Amino acid sequence: MTTQEFIGNPNFTIQSQTVSESCPSNIALIKYWGKYENQIPANPSISYTLNHCKTNTSMEFVAAEPFSVQTFLAGNVEVKFAEKIEKYFKNIEQYLPWILKGKYIIRTENTFPHSSGIASSASGFGAIAKCLMVLDEMFTGKTSEEGSLRKASFLARLGSGSACRSLYNGLVVWGETDEVENSSDLFAVPYPDHEIHDTFKSFNDWVLLIHEGQKSVSSTVGHGLMKTNPYAERRFQEARENFVPMKEILKSGNMDQFIKLVEHEALTLHAMMMMSDPAFILMRTGTLEVINKIWDFRKETGLSLFFTLDAGANVHLLFPNNGTEDKIKTFIEEELLQHTQKNGVVKDVMRF
Ligand code: DP6
């Protein structure tokens, strides 16, 4: 697989346009943590795309003005983000040769709280890549729905790795693995629907906001720490190996094994950070209390409530819609919500 198919069409006619797109966030089950040059992941990952947690973006392109980028987040000027996008646009010029030939005014809004730690870079870069592909089609006159989505995923990856998975619904894989046909390090692919047991198609993700505020390690720094982590190679290998049972589990519908694998992945991500130099402990007291309560609850009731974590303290509570969800929701409200900072919870479902 090469980047050749994504090289941009040199024949284009630009004009001033405003386009709007929205893109959801996603939550990884097998985690991406560690990367090489040009946003190539050190291991394959698989995620669920969320439904309500989205970024809505409008992009105004003013043709023939000197290249510049202005960004607004929820109506407020964001200089740092604009600088990041400027750098990003310069970086992807070979794929969109018209991209530096105008001025941009980008307005974005997230449907979830900024402090929630829900990956706004995934939905944010996903939405920007979609806007760029709409402009590209207008300027080059080339349309191919499948090709355009794939290129949007390719471009989103160059903004933020996990963003490339947000372009598709359902379960989505990024990173080459023998277990998933057509998988690639360059873009994400939807996990084949007929390989997914119905039990995994209607799922909840409630995010407990244990700690709101700035993360103590950015993902850029976090990925970088894997370069010197003595356990990194073993971790990358394990993530690759985990695709074998994951594939079987998704097909058979074995919930117990699914839970075990997903929680193991989350804890491994945090273990990697604890073993980095410098070390980071991103869990808070509330994170540990919630995890222990989930384990006790599962032991007592046998119900399928489990967790995953991102690179932060907040806990993603995962549970299927299989008739037991009301009991689980009551438990969350009565027992787990008290461990959040301000009774904060974002209630989402997987988007299929
Ligand atoms: C822990 O995609 O945010 O959420 O490529 O540097 O932008 P960059 O990193 P990013 O890393 C996400 C890491 C993760 C796991 C995952 O989503 O797979």
Automatic annotation (TrEMBL):
Question: What Gene3D superfamilies does its record include?
Answer: 3.30.230.10, GHMP kinase, C-terminal domain (3.30.70.890)
Domain Mvd1 C-terminal spans what residues?
Answer: 207-336
**Entry keyword set:** ATP-binding, Lipid biosynthesis, Lipid metabolism, Lyase, Nucleotide-binding
Q: Name one Pfam family in it.
A: MDD_C
**Domain of life assignment:** Bacteria
Q: Where does the record place the Diphosphomevalonate decarboxylase-like N-terminal domain?
A: 24-183
**The keyword Lipid metabolism appears for this protein:** yes
Q: Does the keyword Lipid biosynthesis apply?
A: yes
Quote the protein name from its UniProt record.
Diphosphomevalonate decarboxylase
Q: Which organism is it from?
A: Chryseobacterium rhizosphaerae
